[in-house]
Write a structure and sequence with these properties.
This protein starts with a strand and ends with a helix. It has three helices and two strands; from the N terminus they run ββααα. Helix 1 packs across helix 2. With about 120 residues, it is mainly alpha-helical. The chain has a two-stranded antiparallel sheet with strand order 1-2. The protein folds into two domains: about 90 residues, no CATH class; about 25 residues. It is elongated, with a radius of gyration of 27 Å.
């Protein structure tokens, strides 16, 4: 297992990780360090354990906010997909064969346009 040196709040730590995961560990450590630096700028004298605890809690709070936002976005997407499906049903829908045929016609038109452009230039 590779050992990686990370810096959190000006303190260095040796941490082991799975082979090939070093980049992820360094990225996570950078996020934790950013929170630790914020904590240190507000409260100068924090013990190592208190600094890591507070920094971890700040990241957890941000993660919880992102999770909440993601759930809201997923609900909106589901509602829009249902609305789209209903609109397609109401309009009789567009069969996949029509969509495929339209894509083929568009590709042929582009190929013809390229040929014409080549002949003109």
């Amino acid at each position: 297992m590779p050992e990686v040196t990370i810096s959190i709040g000006g303190r260095e730590f040796e941490v082991a990780c799975a082979e090939g995961e070093e980049h992820y560990l360094k990225s996570a450590a950078a996020m934790l360090d950013a929170e630790a630096q914020t904590m240190l700028s507000q409260i100068r004298h924090l013990t190592e354990s208190r600094l890591l605890l507070m920094s971890g809690l700040m990241l957890a709070d941000k993660t919880a906010g992102v999770d909440d936002s993601l759930k809201v976005a997923e609900q909106k997407i589901a509602a829009l997909e249902a609305e789209l499906a209903e609109a397609r049903r109401a309009a009789g829908g567009v069969p996949d064969t029509v969509v495929d045929t339209m894509a083929e016609i568009a590709a042929q038109a582009e190929a013809l346009a390229d040929q014409i452009e080549t002949k003109v230039s």
